Amino acid sequence: GGPGTGTTKFGAYLRLASLTQSTRVSSWGYGDSALPCGSRALFGTHTPFEFISGWPDPKLLIVWGSNPAETSPLTRMRWVMDAKEKGAQVVVIDPRFTVTAAKADQYIGINPGSDTALALGIMHVIFQRGLQDEDFIRQYTVGPFLVRTDNGAFLREKDLDLNGSSDYVVWDNISNSARVSGTSGVRPSLTGAYHVSGIECKPAFQLLVELVETYPPEIVSLCLEAPDRPLFSREHQWDKLRRRGDGHSAYRDGA
What we know:
Blueprint: H1 10-19, H2 34-43, E1 60-64, H3 68-71, H4 76-85, E2 89-93, H5 99-102, E3 106-108, H6 115-128, H7 134-140, E4 146-148, H8 157-160, E5 169-172, E6 177-180, E7 194-196, E8 199-203, H9 204-212, H10 217-220
Parallel strand pairs: 1-2, 2-3
Antiparallel strand pairs: 4-8, 5-6, 7-8
C-alpha cells in the first residue's frame, strides 16, 4: 500500500530519493507516473478501481501477490476479514507465506516468476469445463476480433477494401461471413479458423484457447511449491461462481 492507501509515509520516499540523489517520477516518489497520467485522460481519476465496500458479499476471495495484512491493515485487510467471517473462502497466492497467507483458508505457494503460467493453468480448467462467460467476452473484450495468422495483426476493414476503415473485423455466425465489429445484428464467433479474401484468420479468443491448451494441470503443478496438493479446494464450486470485482488496478505506479 502506498502513502494514500497504506501505512507508509510520503516523507520516507522523499528522504530515500534525497539519499540516493535521485528524482521522484510519481507524485509519491516511488514509481512511474504513467498510470495515473493515463488514467486521468481515460477515466477522469487518478487510479481507477472499484471500491471494495460496494461489492456484494463474495463467496471466493483470491489475494494474488498482495499482502494487505501488512500494507493496508485498516482498510483492505479489514474488508477481507469481514468477508471471511461472512463465509467467504480466502485464497492467497504468493511465493512467500505472508501475514495475509496465515489468515487464509488456503495458501497456494508458487515459484517466483510463475504467475503467468498459473493464470493460464486456471484458464485451462475454466475453458475445459465451459465456465467462461462468452457473452461478456463478445461484448467487452477483443476475443472475437479476427487475427491474421500471417503477421499476427488484427484484421481491419482496410485490409479487405482500399477504401475501408480501421475498424476491426469479426466472423459473423449468423451470416457466415466477415463483418465489421459493432455492426448491428452480428453474433461474432469466438473459435475456429476462417479465410477472408484470401487471408487466413482466427478469432483472438481461439488463439488464447490454443495457448491455454499447452498449460494443463500436470504442467502447471510444477509451478507450485507443493505440486501434489490440489490447486483449489473442491468446495469452491467454480460453476456457481461469478465475478464480483477486481480490486485495485492491476498495474500501478510503484504498487
